[in-house]
Write a structure and sequence with these properties.
Layout: H1 2-16, H2 21-72, E1 76-80, E2 84-88, E3 97-98, E4 104-108, E5 113-116, E6 126-132, E7 145-149, E8 156-162, E9 170-172, H3 177-180
Antiparallel strand pairs: 1-2, 1-5, 2-3, 4-6, 6-7, 7-8, 8-9
Length: 183
């Protein structure tokens, strides 16, 4: 009698195990909807990260070129194109880099070539803007960062663009905001 009850229980468990087709379709639909909702956010996040990386590489190349010009007592020029960063002469910027111009926008107020003299000074003051691009290739101005290079001393400061539509956009450095309210 005990054997009969045990085999009936085993048979019952075997027939009730597994998933049916409707359950699998519902789970697949839910996963698909979640992927469709999260994909644009993931792509936007990747574009933002790439823009931050390009911004850091440009800033690093400028500092490196300025330091090498001073250290070697010779002129050094950083050239930034829409998809690369390089330096002349050789050794000015040790590692030329490239980036995807369909994802990141790089523009400047005074050209994308910065020359440092043997003292690390530059005569061409300018502001470089780095912004991620949206899916259609337009820069996302609200997320753009800027690098300001002053003439003579060649000082480099960074910040975020403020008031983008105005003819003279302002590169606001959040670190300097604490000094605005000083007497």
């Amino acid at each position: 009698m005990r054997l009969l009850i045990a085999t009936n229980l085993l048979k019952k468990n075997k027939t009730e195990s597994g998933f049916n087709l409707i359950e699998m379709l519902v789970v697949t639909a839910i996963v698909g909807i979640m992927a469709a909702i999260s994909a644009p956010n993931l792509l936007g996040s990747q574009r933002d990260n790439q823009a931050k990386e390009v911004f850091s590489k440009i800033r690093g190349a400028l500092i490196e070129a300025q330091t090498n010009a001073n250290r070697k007592s010779s002129s050094c020029t950083v050239t930034i194109t829409t998809s690369s960063i390089s330096g002349t002469p050789a050794g000015c910027v040790l590692e030329p880099t490239t980036f995807d111009s369909s994802v990141v926008s790089v523009t400047s107020t005074g050209g994308l070539s910065i020359a440092y003299d043997f003292q690390g000074d530059t005569g061409n003051a300018q502001t470089i803007q780095v912004a991620p691009k949206d899916g259609s290739g337009n820069p996302i101005l609200e997320k753009s960062r800027c690098i300001v290079i002053s003439s003579n001393l060649g000082m480099i400061r960074t910040g975020f663009y403020k008031d983008m539509p105005s003819p003279q956009p302002d590169c606001e450095n959040t670190e300097n905001l604490r000094y605005d309210n000083q007497p």
